[in-house]
Amino acid sequence: MIISDKVAKDITSGSDFWTQVRELISWDELDNQFSTTQKKRRELRLSGRSYYDAYFRNSIKLSNPNRSGAGFFSLITKSESATDIPEKEGDLERKNSLKLTFFNKLLAKANDDNDEEAHKFLENLFLAYKKGDVLLWVQQIFNDNCTNEKIIVGLLRLFLEFSFEEVSPVAMTIAACCINHKSYVVKTATFSLLGHWCNKEALEIITSFEEPREMMLRVKYKKLKEIISAKCTI
Amino acid sequence: MYYLRRIVPEKWDNKVSLDAVSVSDLSTGDNDISVWQINDMNELEEAGLTIAMTKNILKDVNVVIMEDKRLIELGLKILDQPGKSHYAEKNDSHKNISVPTFWEIGYLTEYIHNQLQDEKNFHYFAEDELKETLYKVAKDGSMNYQFMADKDSSRLRGTLIAICCEKKDSELRMELEKMALKK
Description:
The structure holds 2 protein chains of 2 kinds. Chain A is mostly helical. Chain A has helices at 5-13, 16-24, 27-32, 36-47, 49-55, 78-81, 91-111, 117-128, 131-144, 149-159, 164-167, 170-178, 184-197, 200-207, 215-233. Chain B is built from 7 helices and 6 strands. Chain B has a 6-stranded antiparallel beta sheet. Chain A binds chain B through residues 37, 40-41, 43-44, 46-52, 54-55, 113-114, 160-161, 184-185, 188, 192, 195-196, 198, 214-217, 219-220, 223-224, 227-228, 231, and chain B through 9-10, 12-14, 55-57, 59-60, 62, 116, 119, 122, 124, 126-129, 154-155, 157-159, 161-163, 165-166, 177, 180-181.
């Protein structure tokens, strides 16, 4: 079955009906319903989101504002939230499994920068939940693992594959924390992230940091400071 | 003539000569180490882009600059081997340094380590610089952006289209979109 352009647009923009449908069928099944051209268009939009979305105001929104439900609490467990919201049967397992999957994907990302699984996973979370809820959940994962170098590097490299608007303000907070991390890998990944954003916020973070002693970090720091300053001045 | 090799900074910075961690950055499965050749430093920018475009996403790149004379003095053989960059026009500048035994890989590691003691032999290509170069070569026709139609370059084409949107270059954007939807 090939669905029409109108329906495809509804799915990607998250109309109420299709939000419910999405809960019933898997992403793979849903994906098969798109014609090749529709897939191409969707892929194109997803791959060039940062500026492309701004260009096509009415195209796909990564964050789904129509998504209802318990929000942030549908991602975190009762013990983490310290609230009295009752947990449904099987909810705890689902949430723990979600976190464990994300953990594994972050570790894979830290070990292999080319790994795309973590990116797909977070992208699907953005489609399934509200952006703010997902980012709060990510921040909580960072808070709980701020001594785990691999998880932090995985997170920073993952943020590198999204635009600033998609992952701010949580990514900005994390970057500001990580720039003074003792680990070389964390610092270099943070610099790369600031270079990716290349905006006023990145400049504020980078200028607040002292020039590193290590030669390669220093070269990277100087170059980024120069480029970001020049871009922000324009 | 110079050769560029992509490096992972944390494996070289503040390390002693022949550090085991540094050697691990020169891992090989076929006794060859991949490098990119440039004739002079004017080709550096495009070489950086070529290296960055070996992946599907445009990210910053760190390279060490090696001199051909010194490599030859060390007895290292340089072999022709076309590269696999999405910047297809530059794939012929890809070479392999043959490392049949651990002696050669040791000499090469030691040489790279020595090169990196001097800041001028290390170059960092920031993401923004690479985007500028990508737009420049797409615009002036140096790049035949065939990769726009490749299945495995979805993010690269997204990046290039995004740059066109940022530069408000609708002419190039339309052309690229047509190419992307063609296949």
